[in-house]
Amino acid sequence: MDKLGLQTDTLPSPTAERPLLGLTVLVIEDSRYACEAMRLLCLRSGARIRRADCMRAARRHLQVYRPSVVIADLGLPDGDGIDLIKELSRAQQRVDAILAISGDTHLAADAIAAGADGFIEKPLTSLAQFQQIVLSVLPPDRQPKGVRALVDETVEPDEIAYQDDMAHIADVLDESGDSVALDYVAQFLGGVARSASDTPLEKAALALAEKRALGQPAETERATIAGLVQNRLSQRIAI
């Protein structure tokens, strides 16, 4: 569904070629790069996409719209995605399907326990895999009829979206150096860098996360990340 009160019989029926036709997917994701991948996957599957980049924006959205599917990142800038999943699963008018998404696979059990119907491991770029995951948690009346051929296709987000994520983290590092901000930087960059196959940045994010987990000073790791981020931002002109 989209707007509250919209009847399912007014929605177009899914087809073998576009198995998510008629669905509206709310993606709650702070990474522009990860969200761009989701946009392409939804577009090629027939679904509409709406985006919220934090828990507050998601809650505002859900006051007006009731999507068919919610895909919630577990690491959000203003709270834990697990808490949002609990809210969604206990809502009086529950959406058809709630999916958690994260690069931290150890969080899958917590997401399911909170009420998620399934878990998506980042990065996800396979069209067939995306469609299979979403369809597996939808009710029978939202399933396409007949035989459906799996499309062996992957999506590649625009590099500009990655640049936007780098600019976002540069702002976070400039505006705040407290422990909560550093934890967010490590979590955010770890997932984004993994999705973009940026191994040096992923390793730097992991090093920061390890220092934070041990409760040790992490100024060296913070400076390393700041330098890598600025290096990637300097490439903006070439894109």
TrEMBL record:
<feature type="domain" description="Response regulatory">
    <location>
        <begin position="24"/>
        <end position="137"/>
    </location>
</feature>
<feature type="modified residue" description="4-aspartylphosphate">
    <location>
        <position position="73"/>
    </location>
</feature>
<dbReference type="GO" id="GO:0000160">
    <property type="term" value="P:phosphorelay signal transduction system"/>
</dbReference>
<dbReference type="InterPro" id="IPR001789">
    <property type="entry name" value="Sig_transdc_resp-reg_receiver"/>
</dbReference>
<dbReference type="InterPro" id="IPR050595">
    <property type="entry name" value="Bact_response_regulator"/>
</dbReference>
<dbReference type="Pfam" id="PF00072">
    <property type="entry name" value="Response_reg"/>
</dbReference>
<protein>
    <submittedName>
        <fullName>Response regulator receiver domain-containing protein</fullName>
    </submittedName>
</protein>
<dbReference type="InterPro" id="IPR011006">
    <property type="entry name" value="CheY-like_superfamily"/>
</dbReference>
<keyword id="KW-0597">Phosphoprotein</keyword>
